[in-house]
Structure formats: structure tokens, C-alpha cells
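queue> pop job 88
queue> type: inverse folding (structure -> sequence)
queue> payload:
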């Protein structure tokens, strides 16, 4: 049988990779360009007289007010009071919320008893409870911290319970079939599986905590960013008022960035 030469292979066309899995990618300088555009629009609107200085002060006036507050030490005093309330309230509400959320997700008794109660408390505007907390706990720091903690508690319970409930039950059954202890299953399977939902709940709860912090300080506080904003508005010092609002915005952005770093560290397995 004569030797037959194999036919040459056709020209291969490379196929683009299509399995990105909706993985987000960072676009360099996009965030800076967005902030620069907003600042440029603000400067243009105030320079050309589109809005009055009383309604929206120019960036230079806000920067001068910000520099004055740093120089006389008022900004540090207000920030220290706000950060203390925010950290304590968020830590208390978040830790209790995670604990109750895990109990609801893992225990039938807790799910039957606590979940309806949490669902009933969740829609209540938490700032409406501040006068009640003041009657119970006084007008000092405890009532403000309790308002923040109570506002953080409900969303953290819902997020944690949802994360625990969405863990693959096949993994849990497989671990149980191999005789893995219950606490090890919770620590090695349930907790990592619920962590994305917990961190998402923490991001939402942090925003709620900052809103409640500002409202609580406006109602009854001598120091704090909310108290500073309210006093500046009453005195029509719009430069200082806008500076305080920008500080709150920077605080929220910093908290969001911190949670984002925690997500990168704790969710590396994804």
C-alpha cells in the first residue's frame, strides 16, 4: 500500500476568550476623572453665577472654611466624637446581628421565634426611636450609640441569615457523612459560604449607621459632624455646612473602601 501524505491542516483561527464570568475590571483614572468633572461643574456653576453663593458656596470658600476648622481644632473635636459613636454602635449592632443571623440560619427554634420579630422591627425608621431611647437611657452618648446599633442590627441579621441559608447543603451533608464535628462545619463551610452576604450587609449597614449618626447628632449633641452641620445651617454659614457634608461623604467613602479591602482579603477563595 503506497504511503499517503496527510492533508495539510487548515489555517487555525484563534477564538477570543469568552469565559470571563462577568469579572469586573478597573479602568485607570476613571474615579479621579469623575470627581474632577464634578468639581469642575461645581466651580463653573458658582463662578458664572448659575447659583447664588448662599445656596452653594464656591469651592474656594469651602476650602477656606475647612482650613479654618482644622486650624482651630474644631474639626478634630467633631470627628472624634462622631467616630467614637459610629465605631461603638456599628460594632455592637453588627456583632449581635451576625450572631442572631447565624442562630436563625442554623436553628429551627431561633428561625421560628426570632425571624418574625426581626422582620417586624426591620421596617421601623430607627431615628423615630431616638426619643424613646433618650427617655430610657438619657440624652448622653448611650442613646445615640443605641440608635446606631439598633439600625445596624436588623440589616445584619437579614444579610447573615440569607448568607447562611444560601450555603450549598450538599457540602454540609458530605461533611456530616464523614463525621466532621458541627463546629468545624460551621467554621470551615458555613462561615466562608455566608461571608459574601455578611460583607454586603456590612456595606449597607455602614451607610445606615452614618445616616443615623448624623440624625442623632442633629437632635441632641454638642459635638459631632451632624451637630456641626446643623449649627452651620442655623447660622447660615453655608461654607462650613458644605464642608461638613463633604466630611460625611469622605467618611462614608472611607468605610466603603475599608469593607472593600476586607472583601479582597476574606474572599480570596472566589
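queue> result:
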Amino acid at each position: 500500500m503506497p504511503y499517503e501524505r496527510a492533508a495539510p491542516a487548515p489555517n487555525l483561527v484563534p477564538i477570543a476568550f469568552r469565559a470571563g464570568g462577568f469579572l469586573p475590571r478597573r479602568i485607570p483614572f476613571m474615579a479621579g476623572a469623575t470627581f474632577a468633572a464634578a468639581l469642575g461643574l461645581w466651580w463653573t456653576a458658582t463662578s458664572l453665577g448659575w447659583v447664588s453663593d448662599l445656596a452653594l458656596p464656591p469651592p474656594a470658600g469651602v476650602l477656606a472654611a475647612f482650613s479654618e476648622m482644622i486650624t482651630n481644632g474644631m474639626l478634630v473635636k467633631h470627628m472624634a466624637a462622631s467616630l467614637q459613636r459610629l465605631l461603638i454602635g456599628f460594632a455592637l449592632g453588627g456583632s449581635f446581628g451576625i450572631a442572631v443571623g447565624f442562630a436563625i440560619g442554623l436553628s429551627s427554634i431561633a428561625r421560628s421565634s426570632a425571624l418574625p420579630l426581626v422582620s417586624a422591627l426591620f421596617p421601623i425608621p430607627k431615628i423615630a426611636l431616638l426619643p424613646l431611647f433618650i427617655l430610657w437611657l438619657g440624652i448622653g452618648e448611650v442613646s445615640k450609640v443605641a440608635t446606631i446599633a439598633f439600625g445596624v442590627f436588623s440589616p445584619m441579621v437579614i444579610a447573615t441569615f440569607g448568607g447562611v441559608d444560601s450555603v450549598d447543603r450538599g457540602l454540609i451533608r458530605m461533611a456530616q457523612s464523614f463525621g466532621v464535628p458541627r463546629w468545624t462545619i460551621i467554621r470551615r463551610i458555613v462561615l466562608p459560604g455566608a461571608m459574601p452576604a455578611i460583607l454586603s450587609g456590612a456595606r449597607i449597614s455602614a451607610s445606615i449607621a452614618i445616616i443615623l449618626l448624623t440624625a442623632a447628632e442633629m437632635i441632641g449633641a454638642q459635638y459631632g459632624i451632624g451637630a456641626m452641620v446643623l449649627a452651620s445651617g442655623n447660622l447660615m454659614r453655608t461654607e462650613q455646612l458644605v464642608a461638613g457634608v463633604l466630611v460625611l461623604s469622605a467618611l462614608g467613602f472611607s468605610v466603603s473602601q475599608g469593607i472593600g479591602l476586607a472583601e479582597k482579603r476574606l474572599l480570596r477563595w472566589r
